[in-house]
Amino acid sequence: MTGKGNHNTPACSLVIRCFNEEAHIGRLLTGIMAQTLKDVEIIVVDSGSTDATLSIASQYPVKILTITPEQFSFGRSLNIGCAAATSDFIAIASAHVYPVYTDWLEHLLKPFADSGVAIVYGKQRADGAAKYAEHMIYKKWYPDESTTDQRHPFCNNANAAIRRSLLEAHPFNEALTGLEDLDWAKRAIERGEKVAYSAEAEIVHVHNETLTRVYHRYMREAIAFKHIYPHERFRFLDFVRLVAGNILSDCYYAAHDRMLVKNVSQIVSFRFMQFWGAHRGFSRRALISQQVRNRLYYPNGLAKAGADGSVREAEGAIEYECRHH
Length: 325
Hints:
By secondary structure, the chain is of the alpha/beta class. Helices cover 39% and strands 18% of the residues. It has helices at residues 25-33, 53-57, 74-83, 104-109, 132-141, 164-169, 180-190, 211-228, 236-256, 260-283, 290-297, and strands at residues 12-18, 40-46, 62-66, 89-94, 97-99, 117-126, 147-150, 159-163, 194-205.
């Protein structure tokens, strides 16, 4: 289902949050321009970029909102962007993703034909340069089958859409250091609303992080998870079990794909940093100061930034140039 745009109301609003995304945001905006759904209001929420992100974004028909890095949280940036939206349906995308097909937005909004659906999230796949373990994570959490009534609250705002009326009544939690999407979906299910997943609304997620950034990402998400589920525990034995189990699983599939030799080292290092970050996040007892928040959001500081298979056929795929600046 798509919103019924008229002279005043777009069919869809789309909020993009970004920070130093000059290498990626042009490709995303190009993909949005190629969509079959044309009546789209694009809102960019930037949290203090020091590179060419805003100059690139300004070349497209977008509304740009700015906040300082100190004001940033994942939930706050989305609440600010969504407050400026005028459509009944708000799509959300990270600046370092890009749609695979021209009907991405059509499929992302289609589940809203069911009036009980509160939020939809779409399929993600890692880009070709991603670590092998990242490819395995995406395949696990983003299957090839869609559902309009998911029973667990997993959701991801890198590729999602939400009813504006429900978000106005129930904003994203601005205090969380991550997982604001899972928290919102959890509360939606508790209210009796539905979480939908669209395997046809596929994007590529460019997540080429250093191991330090992997550690910080899973640490801040664990801090948030502990806040959302205060009775959950992540003991050292859980860390050992998950590291060992995921390394063995990744190595098994890498061997099957004839990719083990060149990937075994990064499989071990990625999985170790992933779950060590999660363990450290669960181990924190004190409240998170603004200084620590900034360290989690911007582990490399605020300096100037440097620059898989699908179940669908190639028809309708968007052709991108290598890079847009």
